[in-house]
Amino acid sequence: MRIALIGFGSVGRGIAEAIVHKNLDLTVSGVADSKSGIIDPAGIDMRAVLERKRETGMCGEEGISAMEIITSADYDLLIEVTPTDARTGEPALGYITAALRRGKHVVTSNKGPIACAYHALRTLADEHGVQLRYEATVCGAIPIMQALENGLAGNDIRGIYGVFNGTCNYILTRMADERLTYQQALLEARELGYAEADPTYDVKGIDAAIKLVILANTVWGLSTTLDDVDTTGIDAVTSDALELAEGQDCTIRLIGEIVPGKEILRVSPRIIPKSHTLVVSGTLNAVMVDTDMAGKVTFIGKGAGSSETASAIISDVLFIRDHHVKRT
Amino acid sequence: MRIALIGFGSVGRGIAEAIVHKNLDLTVSGVADSKSGIIDPAGIDMRAVLERKRETGMCGEEGISAMEIITSADYDLLIEVTPTDARTGEPALGYITAALRRGKHVVTSNKGPIACAYHALRTLADEHGVQLRYEATVCGAIPIMQALENGLAGNDIRGIYGVFNGTCNYILTRMADERLTYQQALLEARELGYAEADPTYDVKGIDAAIKLVILANTVWGLSTTLDDVDTTGIDAVTSDALELAEGQDCTIRLIGEIVPGKEILRVSPRIIPKSHTLVVSGTLNAVMVDTDMAGKVTFIGKGAGSSETASAIISDVLFIRDHHVKRT
To answer: Which sequence positions of A are flagged as catalytic?
Structure first.
């Protein structure tokens, strides 16, 4: 199977490393970063590309663009891991659309296109008989999409509850464990690289809400948007509130909930018993799926990180390789 | 896809109920319990079979045996959920072998055949180009085999750790929470139907060890047997030991561990911090998979129960239907 790899930041490089070091039986025929690209239908030496990127900051030659590779190179599957605006979905949305229109399978780590345009992209993929997979968009290393699609197949999914944002979870964990104020914990998260310079996207609950939109639209076929999610962030959580919770053997976590039967689609700080399965520490994510036959099944793992995202991308690619590559 | 359903106890009936009530696009062409059977290539009315079983204790007619259905009926996939000796694997092993020899896909809930004869069965399935799936054998409702096979595909699995036996976990939970003695907690587990009249298989760690054998042979291709597992049960755990653990904010759980790189294959009661992800309550199971790219991913859910087992069986059946049914 021939791969076009678009995006060569830390996730893209993690994927390239896996292709180099693991025997995955994948040939890369196109690679692009924001400034350069390389095309070779016979297969690109990814070891050399990684070295060139390290030395020059570019993976290929100037003048070969991502879109050129997507629309003209010879490949079976597009791996799309560009830096993308999660709210507009661009430039990933344009890339994914172009690849699907050419009848290419797509695997992406970008939440934006899936949250903004899921049904249009799904229709396009179905029309062309190709796969669109996005395990990496929800809870990084946790194979939640695979579990919902296959592991729990046949179950009615009644609801999904979880800790979907590692940055908020880190801040709340530190506020509770070390009695830090919100500002102190946020500062620490920034210093450790867990929070961005502008933390709005995480701490206001937007990132968690986008993941809920993806799950709601994918699992139940709903047509929700970010505006439909009743979203409250963690920036108003005080040390006093955490101390009060602590006194009842509880703590506070930013919980995302989808319960279509009760029209619940919400992200908010919740007081929950410390012994609850969703109370995980630090930057971990946790998702509980409530089903009719399997009962409640919970998944816990790292929600972010380049290696974790690469893991999710690779699992999607291998799933398509093993189960969906067109028989020629 | 046509199904032969062999075994019509609570799990078999749970599967039949799911086929009746959910739109799974499955036709049942053969059903057998220990005393009777029914064959109809055009499709059996499963609602009627469930009613007959309820009224007469038999699913079909006397004189039609399970083996007759397996070797002569028209079906694509055998669902094998008979009461089977976990140590010898019979009668399931004979049934599964006969179906694979006929080139039929097999889904089973029986640990015995997979633990005793995995490599022979896998070879037989490969030779005939059919699938052998057994999600239900390890941790009931938790889609752990699916996660290891697909969700975490591409990862090197370094180790697997977990609480694999709900009976032991219930007993240890009750001893810790209510300061019961082992005998008191065992009695309670028996009254609630969580422990058998002869609890040896659970409390001596044998059930957990069998699950480790299945994982070791499946995930790493090892050829381990029950004798290779260093197994200690929970029957020697005292209230004093639990109280000591409690004093250090710890508790005791029966933990199964496989770490091939360190030659660890062990089931034993372990003292672990109460905040550890594997400390789950009551009859829950928990499995932590340690990987190179995805880090540590933990799965928590019900380990037993007829509905949970039916869920795992159905997910395997649907996976084969969607991804492996022979194109004709």
So the answer is: 211
